[in-house]
Q: What sequence folds into this?
């Protein structure tokens, strides 16, 4: 499977460098390569860190990239999921070998009702397909249809220090939100590492909240490889900084568990109502407003054209425009953006057998790879000899 694709990064950065990929790095590398430009001229536009990335992007090689990501069926997908992760998942399909799955084992850590697990799994599948998942090319499956991943989780658990998991912020956050801290929730990052490593993934497109889990995955892969031999690829996260944290209607990170979401496919009237309820400050209409501190403006940035955004920025700064006007325009833009996908989503709802068939086909393709990696890992640790 898979053609050759341009790899944007040297496989490993020296310690201390962020592993976040800057999509412009390949292009800038080319620029620098073609003309030997003095990089100090970039300082006006890019940070020192960016410039270093430009330099690293010299080291590009032609390799096949395997992209993998998962999404939990723990509720209806929202625009934070879309702009923070799903849109990147779909864009990457054109150039890379993509593996996306519905993380139903992970969702069990929240002890959902069994009927909800089933319903949300189908919902996530329909959302992805309606939004443009290429069901022929991309491997798309339900995590629990490839149980090999749970056996690998155990092998990885045995090289995972407790301290590594105790430091995970998402565990601490969930406990603070009132989740009962079961062992599954604590071990969640090890299952996630198994998801990534079993498919020997290069690149993991996610939102900023998942960065630490990918770091844990790298740590586990390096430990396992150094104990037992080079079995696993050490992956890199793919996080686009400008959309790494999409705010919810209350200004916190949009999340299913905060009840502050705008769902991708919720009825249009409800989208309007939720947008009109987005929290803003109480600056009077006539006074200037700071767009950088406004949740409505943060969402307008995702949808408005650069010209329109510049106009809104100007209107905010000069005063005389109320937040309600910006909210009305945001609702229009949001509804228009997702309109073309609604029809397809409605058709898919009438054809659940097709959705199940796509997932079954995907699981078969995923399982073939997972079984092979698991066999290598079992042998490496001395099982079944
Ligand atoms: P939720 O927090 O709603 O339960 P998930 O944990 O299922 O969302 O996240 C699925 C994907 O969407 C992950 O890659 C996550 O990083 C990304 N994501 C979720 N919420 C946001 C957000 N508000 N901004 C950016 N990315 C997000
Ligand atoms: N933890 C991820 C989330 O909540 C979902 C997930 C599970 C995942 N396994 C993964 C993401 C592997 C990327 C790669 O969003």
A:
């Amino acid at each position: 499977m898979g053609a050759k694709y341009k790899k944007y990064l040297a496989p490993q950065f020296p310690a201390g460098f962020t592993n976040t990929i800057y999509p412009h790095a390949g292009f800038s590398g080319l620029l620098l390569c073609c003309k030997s430009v003095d990089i100090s001229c970039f300082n006006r536009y890019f940070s020192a860190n960016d410039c270093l990335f430009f330099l690293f992007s010299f080291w590009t090689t032609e390799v096949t990239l395997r992209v993998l990501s998962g999404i939990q069926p723990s509720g209806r997908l929202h625009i934070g999921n879309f702009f923070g992760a799903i849109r990147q998942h779909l864009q990457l399909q054109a150039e890379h070998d993509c593996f996306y799955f519905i993380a139903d084992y992970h969702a069990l850590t929240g002890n959902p009702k069994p009927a909800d697990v089933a319903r949300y799994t189908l919902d996530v599948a329909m959302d992805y397909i309606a939004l443009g998942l290429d069901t022929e090319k991309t491997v798309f499956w339900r995590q629990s249809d490839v149980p090999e991943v749970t056996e690998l989780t155990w092998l990885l658990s045995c090289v995972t220090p407790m301290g590594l998991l105790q430091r995970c912020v998402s565990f601490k956050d969930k406990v603070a939100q009132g989740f009962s801290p079961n062992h599954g929730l604590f071990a969640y990052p090890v299952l996630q590492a198994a998801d990534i490593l079993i498919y020997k993934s290069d690149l993991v497109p996610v939102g900023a909240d998942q960065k630490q889990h990918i770091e844990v995955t790298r740590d586990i892969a390096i430990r396992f490889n150094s104990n037992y031999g080079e079995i696993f690829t050490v992956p890199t996260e793919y996080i686009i900084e400008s959309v790494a944290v999409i705010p919810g209607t209350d200004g916190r990170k949009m999340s299913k568990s905060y009840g502050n979401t705008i769902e991708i496919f919720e009825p249009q009237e409800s989208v309007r109502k939720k947008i009109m309820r987005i929290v803003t400050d109480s600056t009077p209409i006539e006074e200037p407003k700071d767009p950088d501190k406004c949740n409505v403006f943060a969402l307008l940035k995702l949808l408005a054209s650069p010209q329109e955004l510049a106009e809104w920025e100007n209107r905010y700064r000069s005063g005389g425009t109320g937040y309600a006007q910006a909210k009305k325009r945001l609702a229009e833009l949001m509804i228009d953006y997702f309109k073309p996908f609604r029809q397809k989503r409605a058709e898919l709802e009438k054809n659940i057998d097709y959705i199940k068939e796509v997932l079954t086909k995907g699981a078969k393709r995923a399982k073939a790879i997972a079984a092979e990696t698991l066999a290598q890992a079992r042998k490496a640790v001395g099982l079944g000899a």
In short: The pocket of adenosine-5'-diphosphate (ligand 1) is lined by residues 71-72, 74, 80-81, 84-85, 206-207, 209-210, 244-246, 253-257 (CB under 6 Å). Strands lie at 5-7, 61-63, 66-71, 97-102, 139-142, 203-205, 236-238. The chain has two domains: 25-31+59-245+352-381, 266-349.
